[in-house]
What does this fold into?
Amino acid sequence: MAELDEAQRKLTIKLVYYGPAMSGKTSNLTCLHDLLSPELKGEIMTLETQNDRTLFFDLLPLGFRTPTGWLVKFKLYTVPGQVVHDATRKAVLSRADGVVFVADSQSSQGVNNAESFQNLEENVRRVGLDFETLPLVVQFNKRDLPNILSEEEIQARWSAAPWPLVMASALTGMGVKSTFITLLEAVYPALDKNFSLQKMLGTDIHSFISTATGEPCGNQS
Amino acid sequence: MEISPRGYERALSLHELLSGVVPEKLSAALGSLLGSPARVVSADGSWALASAQPLPMGARRMPLFHDLEIAGYLETTSNDDAHVRAAAMVLESIMRSGARYFMASEMHIEVVQADFEELKRKHEALMASEARYKALAEHLEARVKEQVEIIETAHRHLYHAEKLASVGQLAAGVAHEINNPIGFIRSNLGTALSYVQKFQSVAQYIKSCNDAELIGLWQAADLEFVMEDFPPLLQESIAGADRVTRIVADLKGFSSVDQTEEELVDLNDSIRSACNVAANRINSRADLKLSLGELPRLRCKAGHLSQVFLNLLLNAAQAMTQRGEIQVRSGIEQGQIVISVKDTGCGISPDILPRIFEPFFTTNDVGAGTGLGLTVSRDIILAHGGNIDVSSAIGAGTTVTIHLPIDRRNK
It folds into this structure.
């Protein structure tokens, strides 16, 4: 649940990039750091092992100030994908306001994707969140690689699922920003319901998203 | 809804962010880099790096950002923009590094704690599962013991049943073979008696006639005595034949020991028949006294119970070191049939008393007994829902008491 500091007029929104090992969660954050130009943008903090595998998490802080003087902060986290780090995944996932599930499009990764998604569902329940209402976007990454599932196949497989699907390539930047925007579109209504965001911040969903991404017109690209 | 974050998400103060460096050294280094006095203060001014003196008015302030917000200021009188910006960047890098350390350690603690809790939970689950298996193992041992006991009992029964079957067959064969001749012997003896009476009627006539030669012959052959002795002789023989007939009938009763059908019997009959069968062994050693109370007819395996009574009687007889007395009582006590066999024999010593029901335990010489008599007797009584007790005193004798429930079938 987002952290609201009324004394300092500060709203912190936690977004988590979840998914199997090596599916490109950290690449998503790196890419977002380059693509987005909000008013406030921090450096990516990575906590990794020597071989570039995420140990605890990566963190990208973004933010902007609203006309009403509120500071809105986004904290984008990644979880470590390796199975062994489940306790860390759980800790990172707690209090999340929204989740991007980064799946690996390679046809050989189906089992890993499924296991990780199931792990997400379990951990969501374990940290006391509601999987039915949690804002979630499913991103199929690595569209630039050969031997990947076709988009039709993926759409067919996920047709019964309620979550939006985004095709992406974190290496080329394709679909990374739209994944983020799609997530914000899901997160805003949930936060609005809890905090009356529009009244408090003086922003509607369009200006909220465009300010967060640094796109004046807020169109999705 | 406000939830204050904890652990790795906690907001960090400038003091915490710079806790990894030696304040005096950093402060001195900043002064040297900028070529003028410099100090680092927190955003709200409550904390300053090292014990730097407040700078004179007109000093410039460079904001130090952490996590998108101003965490503090670099204050200096230096006018060298590039140097001040570089110094601020160095400070921000140090702060980031500090934050990285804080977050990593907080996360580490959280993960270790979670892993430990998980481990504890698993350990408890394992202990519970171990306890379950332990209980199962213990239970298993008891079950095996139980099964072994059942098998041993069955084995004993089989052994005994086979023995009884052969004894029964023999007894049935002998009884059948004796029954026929004893029948015509008994019948012929009766006929002979009536013949003697006919002779006696003729004897009166001979004695009263005057034929001296006939009377002389009569007296020479001592036929007077013969005529007198003949009827009691035959009477005794008839009594003997009757006794043989009775013993044969009792033997036939024992010949049915291998039959497992239950029947309604008066146990006093069974006791009497056992006494008859054992009479020969008993009479030479002891006086047998029966005091049998009235008993209701009991549905039971009569052949088996007769075997028990015979066993007890033979044991009692065997216990006699000198001529003594064997008392058999029967009666009703508290709704149970109670039958006791009491002897005045040698008694059983206390150290072997607890073992007398053990299979193959015997004080007889090898070959004299199998040591199964009392074991099987107890099995039979238990099978009828009753119990058997032995009390004994060395030199004074032994009493075996059997209790049998009457209404076992009605329950």
Notes: Residues 153 and 379 of chain B are 8 Å apart (CA to CA).
